[in-house]
Amino acid sequence: MTVDLQSAKQTVRTMHQALDAAAPGEIASVLATHMTPDCLWRGMHPFYEQTGPAAVAAKFWVPMRAAFAPVQRRADVFFAGENQVEGDDAVWVIEMGHLLGLFDQPWLGIPPTGRMCFLRYAEFNRITADGLIDESSMFVDIPAVMLQAGHNPFPPQTGSHHLYPGPQTHDGLLFGASDPDTGTTTMDIVDAMVADLSAANAVANETGIDDIPIEVMQKFWADDMIWSGPAGIGASYTIDRYQQQHSYPFRFNLTAKTFNGHIARFAEGNYACFFGWANLTNTPTGGFLGMPGSVTADMRVTDIYRRDGNKLAENWVIIDLLHWLSMQGLDVLARMRQLTGQDRVGE
Question: % helix / strand / coil in the chain, to the nearest 5?
Fold first, then answer.
C-alpha cells in the first residue's frame, strides 16, 4: 500500500501539535499514539539509538523540555517524499528549524542562561501504511547551544556562527501538494552534484590531491550560495568563501574518505534532503576543528537543499561532531560537565 504524501505530512504535523502542547508527563503517551511500539529513533551524541516511544521520551524529549520550558517550534522547512535509497520506497517527512525556549535548567552539563535559546534541529520520520512513524532520526546542534551559553568547545570557526535563517524565498513549508516533476528535477541535480563529489573523493584517495576547482562547483551551485554548517564550522556565503572556509579545511585535513550510503534521500518541490548513519568515514590528518591527526571516525550528516532554477542556492547541514570527536577520545560534554561542576551535582 502506497502512503500518500499529504497523509504522511499530516501524521507528523498532528504529532508535533500534540507534542508541543503536552506536559512532560504526557510526552510518552503522545509519542505512543503516533509511533509504532518498536519505533527506531536515532539521536545524536549522547542520545544514540532508542527503541519505543517511552525510551525516546525519557532520553530526549522530557529532559530537553524541562531545560528549555516553554518550548516554541519554529519550522523553516517541511516536506515529504518517497525514499530514493534502494531497498526502501517508504515515504519520509522532514522538518527543519529551531526549537525556542527559555534555557532555565542545565541540559547535558550546559549551564542555563535564563534567556531565550535556539536549539537547531532537523527531524526525519518514516511513515507506515497505517499512518504511524516506525523510524525517526533527530539531528540537533548541541554545540550551538553551548555557544549561546558562552562556552565554546572548539577553536575559532572557519565560517560564521549565527542564528541560521530559513530559505531566502520563505517557501520551505510545503504543507500542500507539489508538482512531482519539480521534485524529480531537484533530486536529479542533487544526485549529479553528489556523484561529482564522490568521483573527486575517489581521485583524492588514490592520488592524495584533494582539490576541487571552482568550475566544478559552478556546475551545480549558484555563485551566491549559502552553506549553513554546524556550530564549530559555521556558515559561508558564495562559492569562493565556501571553499576557503569549509571545503578546503575539510578536504585538506581529512583523508581516506569513505561514503557509507544514505538511509533516506528524497525531494519535493525545490527542496531535497538526505541523511546517513553514518554517511561518511574519514581519518583526520591534523588541523580540522583544531584537532591533531587521529583515528578513523564516523560522521553522521544531514543535508537539506533549496534549488533555484538549475542550481543549488542554499544548503543547511548538521553533523554529529560530538560523536565524531568521541570516537577520537574527546568527550566534549564530559569536559563541559567538569568545567561547570555539573559532574559533582548531587555529591
Answer: 35, 35, 35
